[in-house]
Structure to design on (448 residues):
């Protein structure tokens, strides 16, 4: 690892995104699929909230585009969703920081649901809207794991002095 | 802020960035949806992200490998015995099938109708199942260089699986019939009633909309491809009807069906060239 502290911080941020992307495309048994949270969305929200100077709309867009390529979905679909999430997380980052943890988790769920809504709208326009309530469970799972993910990423941020 | 020849350049604001990201995304989506201009770029970029795909599949592969290693001898013997039995049975059926096919051809000739052309098929290995939530797509290890084409039907040993929707040099992505954006024209095998089978996103649930209460369809009916639309060859099993709900308040029956192909189990799939003679060499375009 590079001795430059700023470079080390960058590496730690990008590594967390890499792990999130791997978790997002890792094969899971079918029954578990609705319970897979939007890892990339969660990590993106954390960094936009904690380090808005470093991670933002561009990073979110790029991560979404990589997801599009890995999923084979419409190019730009998840990129747009993640760009929107990053935008809102940056606009709200001061408020999000002040919220108690549970309230933060609810706000995170709202952002993730908004992302899913955008995706389902665009898919609907192309006549490919997924049906069923289980489409929305990933955001709820995201809310449940947010407090733990927050602690892990905060430790990463302190350890590598990401600001 | 940067000063360039008297022009003050400011770092773009968050709003500007969002507008920019939206514009680029929408342009990409329209280009991707409207035509296949982006296929080359997508193919190239997919190669770039391929290591990620491989890395993500490592834990599952290790899990499967470990399980396979520890499979005991008895299980192997049992599987072997079962496969032998199946093989004998299939062989017997195949003999019958050949004589039946000949008989069928003769009868068709007597009737003066067109003979059904034999199809050419090529086996392909399944590489990866798309993990995008609520879409049903798979990646297979045969692409343009094997003569695959967009819209090509893909089957397994039991029935129709789906069609090729993205083509790369040596891989292609197949949209399964259970994908919410997919439909197959079918016939009820029992009486020839025409219908459409739509995917729902649920891995073993298909829906058959637009059938009125007067339609002659029953639970357990086999739906076979009708060959209409020209994408899928006629006569392949697609689904069996599992449930029919006749709600008098609705204009149509709510018919659900289960795919015949083992969409979640197959490791090998078959690419089919409808109408291509069996005598043609495999690999020809």
């Amino acid at each position: 690892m590079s001795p430059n502290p700023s470079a080390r911080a960058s590496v730690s941020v990008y590594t967390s995104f890499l792990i999130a992307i791997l978790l997002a495309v890792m094969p899971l048994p079918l029954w578990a699929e609705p319970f897979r949270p939007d890892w990339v969305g969660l990590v993106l929200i954390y960094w936009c909230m904690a380090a808005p100077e470093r991670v933002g709309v561009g990073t979110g867009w790029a991560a979404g585009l990589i997801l599009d390529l890995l999923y084979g979905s419409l190019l730009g679909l998840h990129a747009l969703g993640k760009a929107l999430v990053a935008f809102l997380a940056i606009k709200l980052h001061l408020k999000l920081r002040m919220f108690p943890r549970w309230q933060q988790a609810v706000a995170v769920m709202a952002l993730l649901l908004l992302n899913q809504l955008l995706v389902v709208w665009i898919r609907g326009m192309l006549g490919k809207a997924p049906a069923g309530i289980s489409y929305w469970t990933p955001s709820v799972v995201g809310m449940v794991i947010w407090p733990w993910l927050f602690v892990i990423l905060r430790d990463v941020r302190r350890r590598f002095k990401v600001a | 802020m940067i000063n360039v020849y008297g022009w003050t350049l400011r770092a773009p604001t968050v709003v500007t960035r969002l507008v920019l990201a939206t514009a680029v995304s929408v342009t990409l989506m329209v280009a991707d949806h409207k035509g296949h201009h982006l296929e080359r770029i997508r193919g190239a970029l997919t190669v770039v992200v391929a290591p990620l795909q491989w890395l993500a599949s490592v834990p599952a592969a290790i899990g499967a490998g470990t399980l396979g290693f520890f499979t005991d001898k008895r299980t192997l013997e049992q599987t072997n015995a079962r496969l032998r039995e199946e093989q004998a049975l299939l062989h017997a059926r195949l003999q019958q099938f050949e004589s039946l096919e000949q008989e069928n051809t003769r009868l068709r000739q007597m009737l003066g109708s067109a003979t059904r052309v034999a199809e050419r098929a090529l086996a392909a290995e399944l590489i990866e199942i798309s993990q995008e939530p609520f879409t049903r797509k798979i990646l297979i290890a045969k692409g343009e260089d094997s003569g695959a084409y967009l819209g090509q039907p893909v089957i397994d040993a039991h029935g129709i699986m789906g069609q090729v929707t993205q083509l790369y040099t040596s891989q292609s992505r197949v949209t399964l019939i259970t994908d919410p954006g997919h439909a197959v024209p079918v016939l009820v095998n029992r009486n020839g009633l025409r219908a459409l089978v739509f995917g729902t996103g649920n891995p073993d649930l298909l829906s058959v909309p637009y059938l009125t209460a007067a339609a002659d369809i029953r639970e357990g009916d086999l739906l076979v491809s009708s060959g209409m639309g020209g994408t899928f060859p006629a006569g392949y099993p697609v689904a069996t009807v599992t449930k029919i709900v006749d709600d008098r308040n609705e204009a149509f029956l709510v018919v659900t069906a289960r795919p015949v192909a083992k969409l979640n189990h197959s490791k090998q799939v078959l690419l089919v060239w409808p109408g291509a003679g069996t005598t043609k060499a495999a690999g020809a375009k």
Remarks:
- Chain B touches chain A through 49 residues (CB under 8 Å).
- The mean pLDDT of chain B is 82.
